[in-house]
Amino acid sequence: MQYARLGNSGLVVSKLAFGAMTFGAGSGANASIYKLDQQAADALVAQALEAGVNFFNTADGYAGGQSEQMLGKALASRRFDAVIATKVGFRTGEALIRSGLSRRHILASAEGSLRRLGTDYIDVYLVHRLDPFTPLEETLEALDSLVRQGKVRYVGYSNWPAWLAAKAIGLQQKHGWARFVAAEMYYSLIGRDLEHEIVPFAQDAGIGIMVWSPLAGGFLSGKYTRDDPTGGGGRLTGFDFIPFEREHGYTVVDALKAIAADYNAAPAQVALAWLLARPAIASVLVGASKPEQLADNLAAANLQLRAEQRQSLDELTAPTALYPNWFNAKTIDEEVRNALGQSP
Q: Would you state the pLDDT for residue 236?
């Protein structure tokens, strides 16, 4: 297993983290994701710990809180060997106020997460989404109060734009509030949008990126093909949430399969290995519903792609430059850059 500091903090986490979104049962849009009972959860968590994983991720909105409860039971006596991240922000009940990032909802949700997880503290507490109806200062002060009470060790955000995270850090510094050290964001070979603004910001601000859905909902596993776009009835048939151009996706999967053949590996392992080598990435979340699937994903920690292979994937999936990024890249002073020995 590989390890890294979580942003500019002293917290050391495994570069492959275990995502517990598959724990529990439910109906509706996420029914195809929630599929594991406690016995299966126990087995997968034990397998992850044995492989050197120390970072476990969940949220209060997963399976109505079942994911947190099952993860807590699965870790049990190993809780102090593990780093637990959970999230707040999505609706957790019918009442209008049981949602968002108000002080009331954050404090109440933290208490609920602590109870379900069966722990006295949350290692990493993340705001799960934007809340346009709550002042940013209110959200940040509530997170700080949890840290001061000892109920949360570190704070972070998920799915925020760079400008808002930058504004938040400015407010945290101004008021002496607990500072963001982590950002859980979507990133994959067919979804590299965060490279435009979020990655440069995270590197500058000392924020460690935790990657969710590194296989684009399972598409990069290779089982979804032009001949069988349903993947034999895979997750995407019931939870097709991430937008991407399918034909380009198939081309990327073909490239992954070609590289995987060199290592007797799976396409998913190549996709994960590419992410593990990317700058600013602290940890990549992998989920599983079967032991063999988890073993395959965890094996990516031992896969070192050759430089030319990484470059070929970089070029194949390079995102289109956005303004003003392309303007600044084209107008940099080459003489100064060369004199300083910096590469393009």
A: 65
Share of the chain above pLDDT 70, in %: 95
Distance of CA 300 to the CA centre of its chain: 16
Multiple choice CATH, 3-339, 3.90.640.10, 3.20.20.100, 2.40.170.20, 2.40.37.10? 3.20.20.100
125 flagged as catalytic: no
Q: Within 10 A of 228 (CB to CB), how many other CB atoms are there?
A: 11
CB-based burial label for 184 (10 Å; 0-12, 13-18, 19+)? buried
Compute the distance between CA of residue 238 and CA of residue 49 in angstroms, rounded to an integer.
30
Question: What does pTM read for this prediction?
Answer: 0.90
φ and ψ at residue 269, rounded to 5 degrees: -65, -40
DSSP string covering 8-75: SSS-EEESEEEE-TTBS---GGGTTT--B-HHHHHHHHHHHHHTT--EEE--TTGGGGHHHHHHHHHH
Give the CA distances from residue 302 to residues 16, 185, 265, 286, 305, in Å, rounded to whole numbers and listed in that order.
11, 23, 11, 15, 10
Contact 76, 42 (CB under 8 A): no
Amino acid at 114: L
Task: Spot the catalytic one: 62, 125, 154, 157.
Answer: 62
Rounded-to-integer distance, Cα 177 and Cα 137, Å: 10
Q: What is the mean pLDDT of residues 261-281?
A: 93
272, 281 contact by CB (below 8 A): no
Measured CA to CA, the distance from residue 311 to residue 72 in angstroms comes to 41
Rounded CA-CA distance 64/259 in Å is 40
The full set of domain ranges for the chain reads 3-339
Q: Could you tell me the pLDDT band of residue 97, with boundaries at 50, 70 and 90?
A: confident
Q: Over range 257-279, report the average pLDDT.
A: 94
Q: 191: which DSSP letter?
A: B
DSSP 196-221: TTHHHHHHHHT-EEEEE-TTTTTGGG
